[in-house]
Design brief:
alpha+beta; 2-methylcitrate dehydratase PrpD; 44% helix; 2-methylcitrate dehydratase; 2-methylcitrate dehydratase activity; EC 4.2.1.79; MmgE/PrpD_sf_2; MmgE_PrpD_C
């Protein structure tokens, strides 16, 4: 790996295109390096993972809305929309499928200087690959590039400290992945990356206060914009440049300003794109920083029960990282995170609610744990209000550690009972994390898929999909990656414009 220094430049300065970050990513995208077997296997795992969470969310209202919008754009040469037959414009298929993947906050994650769900790259790449009749090998190469760009940006450039949503890293990564998939030239990829970034910068209000369904639509929209950007670039249209480094560019006015230097790691020419191997998926449907605390609560439950049960708890303090405290903890100062009437999207960003329910139930369920009946249960509300978070510098240090063995997203829980008994335990990484007690392997991804698809996908259709996706390197008909479901019970939606 090499480190590329990225800063703002005056328009009058000599700053050749070859040094632009967007050009460096274009070079990365055109590097013909082979996808390693380990990366290929992990990409297949993540396509299975995305299908699993899509099957669980396919009947929900936001996903139904996105699907109906896509159905208004049929194409003879298009991509498939999850759950239904037919061919639709690639950008709208990507939007519908991206929303299905993101709706339950239940797929893969990578955390470093910023946050990301790199699995959000997969729906737009699959949709375009289907429309263009690409091969399974081409799709693997495109996804490997998209993950590499996403992870490298997340390592090098922090968006959240400036309240810019993390989808600003997604537009460029999808554009770069599309460049690899379609085997277009560096100039075209460069222009597409610039357009994709320019059209996908937004604030983090989508994840603040009363969180709405836009949290699921936002990355899907970024993927759609990246496809449109690549389409325009292939037709010869340009983009604002240099998009990150310009005098009035992203760094100068949206991020840390004209005097700041970012350090973005990039693979050398010919070096395999391995970034996907650094990412991790979720066993539980909730914000990633709550994965280890859920497992910790499950582990602590027997000791709490032996001490009198959760009704005899006086206080719970979670010692954790800056991010967990200020984004999903009491440091966010969001009253909605303590509100029994809050939306599902808000509850899955409340570590106080999540820890309380996991401690009471000894488990976590993607639907049951979020129902209004569950969130308003009196004994749950009482316990929930006793949970608070504090930032611990050591957990913050480990959150940002470069060494994967040191990097951690967990917490220490200190539970004080009414009689003064103190129960303490801590967990650095979730059980399903690569360094956890039960790291996810292929069988776990398949198990997650079967569990989440049970009520919506017929067994024969499950088997057909699993056989197809596991033969991806040799698969020529990428429509096989789509899944048909019974939509008779989909949520009611209002009539729209399209």
């Amino acid at each position: 790996m090499r480190i590329h220094d990225v800063r703002s430049y005056l328009s009058a300065e000599n700053f050749p295109k070859s040094e632009h970050l967007a050009w460096k990513f274009a070079e990365l995208a055109t590097d013909p390096v082979e996808v390693t077997p380990e990366v290929s296997e992990m990409i297949i795992n993540r396509i299975i993972d995305n299908a699993a969470v899509s099957a669980a969310s396919v009947l929900r209202r936001p996903v139904s809305v996105a699907r109906q919008q896509a159905q208004a754009h049929p194409r003879d040469k298009g991509g498939q929309v999850f759950g239904i037959k037919g061919s639709y414009s690639a950008e709208w298929a990507a939007f519908a499928n991206g929303t299905a993947v993101r709706e339950l906050d239940f797929h893969d994650t990578f955390l470093a200087a910023d946050y990301s769900h790199p699995g959000d790259n997969i729906p737009p790449l699959v949709a375009v690959a289907q429309a263009q009749k690409s091969s399974g090998r081409d799709l693997l190469r495109g996804i490997a590039t998209a993950y590499e760009v996403q992870v490298d940006l997340v390592k090098g450039i922090c968006l959240h400290e400036h309240k810019i949503d993390h989808v600003a890293h997604l537009g460029p990564s999808v554009a770069a992945g599309l460049g690899t998939l379609l085997r277009v030239d560096e100039e075209t990829i460069y222009q597409a990356i610039g357009q994709a970034l320019h059209t996908t910068t937004a604030t983090r209000q989508s994840r603040k206060g009363e969180i709405s369904s836009w949290k699921a639509f936002a990355p899907a929209f970024a993927g759609k914009m990246a496809i449109e950007a690549m389409d325009r670039a292939m037709r010869g249209e340009g983009s604002p440049a240099p998009i990150w480094e310009g005098e009035d560019g992203v760094i100068a006015w949206l991020l840390s300003g004209k005097d700041h230097v970012y350090h973005v790691p990039l693979p050398e020419r010919g070096e395999p794109k391995l970034a996907i191997l650094e990412t991790y998926t979720k066993q539980h449907s909730a914000e990633y920083q709550s994965q280890a605390p859920i497992d910790l609560a499950r582990r602590m439950k027997p000791a709490v029960d032996a001490a009198g049960g959760t009704e005899h708890i006086a206080e719970i303090v979670l010692h954790t990282s800056h991010h967990t405290h200020f984004v999903i903890g009491t440091g966010a100062n969001d009253p909605q995170k303590m509100d029994p009437q809050a939306s599902r999207e808000t509850l899955d960003h409340s570590i106080m609610y999540i820890f309380a329910v996991a401690l009471q139930d000894g488990m976590w369920h993607h639907e049951y744990s979020y129902t209004r009946k569950r969130s308003t249960r009196p004994e749950t509300v009482a316990l929930w209000q006793k949970v608070r978070t504090v930032e611990d510098p050591e957990w913050t240090r480990r959150y940002h550690a470069q060494d994967p063995a040191e990097k951690a997203f967990g917490a220490k829980a200190v539970i004080t009972m009414v009689d003064g008994t103190v129960i303490e335990d801590e967990l650095a990484v979730a059980d399903a994390h690569p360094l956890g007690s039960q790291p996810f392997e292929r069988e776990n991804y398949i198990g997650k898929f079967r569990t989440l698809a049970k009520n919506t996908v017929a067994e024969a259709e499950q088997e057909r999909f699993l056989n197809a996706v596991q033969s991806l390197p040799e698969l020529d008909d990428l429509s096989e990656l789509n899944i048909e479901v019974d939509l008779s019970k989909q949520a009611e939606t209002k009539v729209g414009l399209l």
